[in-house]
Amino acid sequence: MMKRKYLMLIIIASLLTAKGFAQATEIKVKAITDNIFKVWYDRSNYTTNMLVSVGEDGLLLVDTGQEEESALLKEKILEKWGQMPTLIINTHEHRDHTGGNHQFKGAMIIGHRLVRERLQGGSYAFEEFPEYSLPNILMEEEMTIHFNGEEIQMNLIPGAHDDNDITVWFKKSNIVCIGDLAYKQNFPSLSENTGTALMFPEVVDKMIELLPHEAVFVAGHYDDLNLADMLEFKKVVVETIDLVKTEFEKGKTKEEMLEMGLIDNYKHYANGYVSLDEWIETIIIAIDGIPFKKMIYDPIYRTYKTDGIDAAIKKYYDIKNNHADEYQLDYAYQVSIGIQLAQKGKHEEAIKFYHLELKEYPTSDFAYYTYFVLGNSLFELNKKKEALEAYKKGLELKPGNKTLTDKIKELEAEI
After folding, report:
1. What is the number of structural domains in the chain?
2. Between the CA of residue 129 and those of 123, 133, 205, 342, what are the distances in Å?
3. At residue 2, does pLDDT exceed 90?
């Protein structure tokens, strides 16, 4: 049975600074109309997009990006418009759309009821979203508001990417924020415990039915779409699903499908953070109906808060040894906890989870990155020789990686 790794990769991708470790250093702004602006930043192999409406009612911000770029986002908003958001709309729960909420204390936040619920646990537990950064106007059905002279309609479109996705339609301007429901010439991402690849064609049909065909569709990542782009996205998803399903029913594995170049004609859709490999795996999981086990975050977080970091590590082993049939156990969970602790400046605690990851999965696909973040935390603790050693071990696993190479050169010159 295929292991369910795709969700972990999405969690990690949203925590990490992309596959090349590139964190954005600039927030860009483009006017779409006189008072609606696309705001985005580039993480080398994908962009993260937001929308700003400015007018007599104040500033409305759709999505807030990743935590790492949130200070830059706040700075750009104040520089460009001289005011903080009055209202925020989160298109869904993922941290690359909600990670900057905390920068805008005092704003009202609209989101699906499940967004508020999810941000308080699961893979978000160690991030400890403050109360004011959670949605406080909760959707369970279509909602319409009037702001800055626009009628803004929000529709629930769950099932494919996640179970709490909404679209945000500025009716006067004919602009629609669609979150991660479709991408221009890129395979979709999804939460495989609350979404499924098989639903994307239906979701695109629903958007086309509900929304104006001449609209500008602003996706959460990559370029904007028009109707033709939406239809092409659906066509590629349908065709690749059919191809994978046919071979899977013949007993072919993912590796065999890759070797035979099954979907190589769609390589141009694998330029972002979803590869051919990952998209095939996602389709197989959806077809096979593999049950999703619980994630380990909540019990480990509860133990961490009550009994400390060492008890949290012991809790991991308790889960592994006594409850493996209940919980998803695989690489990347441990390093993601470490990253969240490091983002809060808790580097010594983060290092313990990095070491746990490397002990359990020393040669995983993310081992090289674990050495990178381990090196970063060691550097922050002024343990430069140990940091250099960690970077070198990472480079051994990922020869030629530019970020690791640059880190090694910088430290060697400094020590």
Report:
1. 2
2. 12, 6, 34, 15
3. no
Measured CA to CA, the distance from residue 230 to residue 184 in angstroms comes to: 7
| Best CA proximity match to 146, nearest among 218, 32, 55, 209 | 55
User: CA gyration radius for the chain?
Assistant: 21
Contact residues for 250 (Cβ-Cβ < 8 A; gap 6+): none
Domain carrying residue 69: 22-237
**DSSP states along 65-105:** --STTHHHHHHHHHHHHSS--SEEE-SSS-HHHHTTGGGST
pTM to 2 decimals? 0.92
Coil, strand or helix at 302: helix
Tell me, yes or no, whether 219 and 359 share the same domain.
no
Distance CA 306, CA 269 (A): 46
In a domain? residue 252? no
- Per the CB < 8 A criterion, the answer to whether 89 and 110 are in contact is yes
Flag whether pLDDT at 14 surpasses 90: no
Nearest-5° Cα angle at 192, 188 to 195:
75
Please state, rounded to an integer, the average pLDDT across all residues of the chain: 93
Helix (H, G, I), strand (E, B) or coil at 327: strand
